[in-house]
Amino acid sequence: MSISISARFAFHxxxxxxLLLQFEAADIPEQEVLSTTTKLAPALHVARVPAHNxxxxxxxxxxxxxxxxxxxxxxxxxxxxxxxxxxAAVDPHALPGEAxxxxxxxxxxxxxxxxxxxxDRFGDLSGGAQVLAMCDWISDNFHYEPGAxxxxxxxxxxxxxxxxxxxxxxxxxxxxxxASTIPARxxxxxxxxxxxxxxxxxxxxxxxxxxxxxxxxxxxxxPTGMADPAKTAKIGIGxxxxxxxxxxxxxxxxxxxxxxxxxxxx
Amino acid sequence: MSISISARFAFHxxxxxxLLLQFEAADIPEQEVLSTTTKLAPALHVARVPAHNxxxxxxxxxxxxxxxxxxxxxxxxxxxxxxxxxxAAVDPHALPGEAxxxxxxxxxxxxxxxxxxxxDRFGDLSGGAQVLAMCDWISDNFHYEPGAxxxxxxxxxxxxxxxxxxxxxxxxxxxxxxASTIPARxxxxxxxxxxxxxxxxxxxxxxxxxxxxxxxxxxxxxPTGMADPAKTAKIGIGxxxxxxxxxxxxxxxxxxxxxxxxxxxx
Amino acid sequence: MSISISARFAFHxxxxxxLLLQFEAADIPEQEVLSTTTKLAPALHVARVPAHNxxxxxxxxxxxxxxxxxxxxxxxxxxxxxxxxxxAAVDPHALPGEAxxxxxxxxxxxxxxxxxxxxDRFGDLSGGAQVLAMCDWISDNFHYEPGAxxxxxxxxxxxxxxxxxxxxxxxxxxxxxxASTIPARxxxxxxxxxxxxxxxxxxxxxxxxxxxxxxxxxxxxxPTGMADPAKTAKIGIGxxxxxxxxxxxxxxxxxxxxxxxxxxxx
Amino acid sequence: MSISISARFAFHxxxxxxLLLQFEAADIPEQEVLSTTTKLAPALHVARVPAHNxxxxxxxxxxxxxxxxxxxxxxxxxxxxxxxxxxAAVDPHALPGEAxxxxxxxxxxxxxxxxxxxxDRFGDLSGGAQVLAMCDWISDNFHYEPGAxxxxxxxxxxxxxxxxxxxxxxxxxxxxxxASTIPARxxxxxxxxxxxxxxxxxxxxxxxxxxxxxxxxxxxxxPTGMADPAKTAKIGIGxxxxxxxxxxxxxxxxxxxxxxxxxxxx
Lengths: 266, 266, 266, 266
Hints:
The structure is a homotetramer.
Chain A: E1 2-21, E2 31-40, E3 45-50, E4 57-77, H1 97-100, H2 115-122, H3 127-141, E5 143-144, H4 155-161, E6 163-164, H5 166-179, E7 184-190, E8 200-208, E9 216-221, E10 233-238, E11 247-249, E12 253-264
Parallel strand pairs in A: 5-6
Antiparallel strand pairs in A: 1-4, 1-11, 1-12, 2-4, 3-4, 7-8, 7-10, 8-9
Pfam families (chains A, B, C, D): Transglut_core
InterPro entries (chains A, B, C, D): Papain-like_cys_pep_sf, Transglutaminase-like
Protein name (chains A, B, C, D): Transglutaminase family protein
C-alpha cells in the first residue's frame, strides 16, 4: 500500500522566533519513504534533530515575518496491523524500561483521574479487546466538533464535554489505556480517509507481540475510526500533543492556514 | 563529599496491585554509590528496569496488603557545580535532540501559559543568570507550606497561590525555564540540609558547557535554596513529578509514612 | 416529623480573623425550629446577617486562637415532598427572575460544559422524571469516597473521577440540571440517615408547582439517596458549596474537628 | 453627562432554543434612561424578568434560525464618583447580608487561591487605596490581548497568563478584592472611550459611604482604565461574567457579530 502526501502551511512571526517543525513522514522500518520534497522559506537558522524515540525528525528554524512550508512525499506502508482483539496485555512488571514512561500522566492525559471510570466500565476486559472497547465507547459517546477544543483542552475536559477532534479523541484513549496500565502514546500522522483532510492524530498502545515470547510491540488505534493502520504514515510520536505538534513556536505567532491532501496510490 | 542516606516508607494495597518504586541513588558518573542496602517486603513479582534517560532504576512490584521498603546507602558526590551566573544559554537550534523534549509542556509544567510573565520579568537576562533570577524570584515570592498542595497541583496553580513544597517550587522553575526556551527537567534526590528531612526535588537546566565548544550540559538548580548541588544525590529525572515519584501505584492505595535521614559523612 | 440535632466543631485561627458561620437550621415555613441553643466561644465581634434568599442566618465572627462552636436544636419538618416523577419542568421563559441566577454557572458547577452529555443521556426525559434519572445515574456511577475530594474539586472533576462525597454528588446534579435549563441550587442541611453522620448537602431544583397555575417551587433531591426530604432540616442555600459552608474563614486557619448527630424524635 | 448608545448583534440558533438577553442600560437612580428603542427579531416567546439585585432586566427569548437584536438609547449619568483613595473599607462583621454573597468564590473568580499574593502585595493598604493599587498592578502587569481568552478563562488563568480583555481584567480585580474581604461584583456596561468599541465590563467594590455613618455603597473600578465612572451606563451586575452576558444560550449556537457605538452627547 502506498500513499501520496501533499501538505502546505504558513504562519507569521512578529519578531525573530525559534520554532520547531515536525511534519514529514518518518523513515522507519514499518514505512518506506519512496520520494520526498520539503520546501522551507528562507530562515536565519535551520537544523535537524532526531525526534522522540528516534522516530522521524524535528526541524529547528529561526525566522521572522511570513513563513511558509511545503511538503510532498510518496510513502509505502509495510506495517503489519493485526486484529487488536487477539492481542494480550503485557504484565506491568514485564514492560521494558522504555515503555514505562508511556504509563505516566502527561500534559493533556491525566490518567490517574480516570481510574474509577476505566475500572467500572472496561474492567472485565484486558489487552487489545479492552482497547477496542475503549475506542468504541469514545466513538459512541463523543461528538466530532471542529472548533470546540483548543490548545489548552485536556483529556479530562474532553471526557466531560464529550466532544473534540482527532487530537482530543486520541488523548482520551491514551488516558483510558494508561489508567488500565497499558502504555499508550500519541502519534501524529497522515492518512487517507480523514475527513476533513488535515494533519491527523491517533494513539498507539503497547501490547503483547505474538511473534516474540514475552515480547511487546506498539499498535495503532484510532478512536475516530478514520485512519486504517495499514494506510497510515507516521510523522512522529510523543506522550501527547505537546510533544508532536507540526508547529511549535516559542513566541507568539499567528497561524495562517494549512492544507493537506493524502491519497492512496496503489 | 560523601553523604549517608537512610530511608523507610510503607503503604497498604487493598488488592493485588502493580506499582513502581524509584527511591535509590542512581549510580552515574557524577556520583558513586559506595555501599547500598535495599530491603523490599515479599511480593508476587519484582523486576528492575532502567529509568528515564538511563539515570537510575525503577522497580516493578506486584504485591498486596501492607508493604514496606527500607534503604541505606553511602554515596560520594563528584559533581562539578559551577556558578550558574557564568553559564550562557544554548541557542535553541543548537540543542541536541535529546534535550528538546524538556522544552515541551508536561503534566504539571504548562510553560506555554507563562510566556508573558517570563518575558516581562526575566526577559532582560539569559542563560544561567536568568535561571538564578528565576530561583530568587520564587524564593522571594513563595511561602513554603507543607500540606498546601496535593498530587493534582500544577505549576500554574502554585504560581497563582504562591505556595507549596519542593515539588511545587521545582515545577514553577521548570515552567519558567521552558517558557524562556531553556530545557528543564525534574530531579528527585537526597540532600542534607532539607528541612524537614524528606525525599527532595529540584530542577535541572540545560545550559552551555564551557569545556565543550558548542556543547551543553545539565545543571542542578534548587529554588528552595535547601540543596547544595555538590552534596545532592540524584535518584532519577523526568519531565516533572509524574515521572519520578518514589511510589507510583496503579490502583488505589493508602500511604502510611515515610522517614528520610541524610547526613554529610565527610 | 421532628428531628433532634446536635453539632460541635472547632478550629484554630493563627491571627485575628474574620469568619462566617452558617450552621443552624433555618426558621422557615417548611420547617419549625421548636428549640435551639447556640454556644459560640468568646469573640472580638459577633454579628448576625440574613443569608442567601433570606433562608437562615450567617454569623460574622472576628476571633483569634482556638475557637469552638456548639449547637443543639429540635426541628419539626412540615415540608410536602411530592414524587418528583410527577412534576413538569417550568418553561424557561416562564421562570421568575429570582430563579434565573440558579441557571448560571457557579464556582463548582460548570453546567455549560455538560450540555452534550446531558442532552445525549437524559434528553428524552424532562422535569422531575429527568431529575430522578440524573440522581439514579449519579448513584449508579459514583463511588462514595470520603477524602477523595477537597475544597477545589468541581463538578467537572467529580464527573471525570466518578467519586466524592455529598458535596460532590450535589454539585454534579446541580450542573446536570442547569445544563438542561432547570434551575438548581445547593442546600446544606441536617438529616438522619446520613452515614457517616456529618453536615450534609443536597440539591434543590425548581419545577412546576401543581397547586399553582403556571407556578413553580423548589424541591429537594439527594443523589446520595441518604436524606429523605420529609426529614431534612435546611441550614441554608446558595449557588454551590462556595456560598453555604458552615465555616468560611478569610485567613488561613486549621480545622480541628466536627461532630454531628441527627435523630428522628417522632 | 449624557451618552448615546447604539448596539446591534446577531447569532444563529440551530434548533428552537431558549436564550437570555441582557443588553439594555438599566433604569436606576444613578442613571436615567432618557430614550430607548429595542428591536428584537420575531420569536416564539418573549418575556422580561428583573435581573440580579433588580438592576436592569433580562429578556427570555425562544427562537430558531437567524436572530438579530438592535438597541438605541440616550442615558443621563448622575452617578457620584468619589476618589476611591479616600474611602475606607467596611469591617466584615458590619457588612449587610446582601453584600456577603459578593465575598464568595464564583465561576470565574477563585479568590480563595489568591490570598497569599494579595496579602503579600497589597496587605499594607486597605479600602479604596488598596483597590486602586490592585487596579494599577493589573494595568502594569497585564497585556490587553483580544482573542487570548475565551469563555472558559478564569481569574486564575488570567493571573498566570498576564493577559486578556476587559472581562478578564475585571475578574482578576474581583478575585483580588474578595481575597482581601472586600465585596466585589461584575458590571456589564456601556462607556465611551472603550477601544475597540464593544460591550464593556468593569468591577464594582463595596466600601464605606462617607455620607452614611457605618454605611457602605458600591463603587465602580475599571482596571483597564478605559471607562470613566461618571460616563458609564450600567447594563447589569452579577458575581462574574457568568451572570451578565449580553447573550446566554442554552443550546449550541453560532455568534455572528456585534457592533457597539457609545458617544458623549453633553
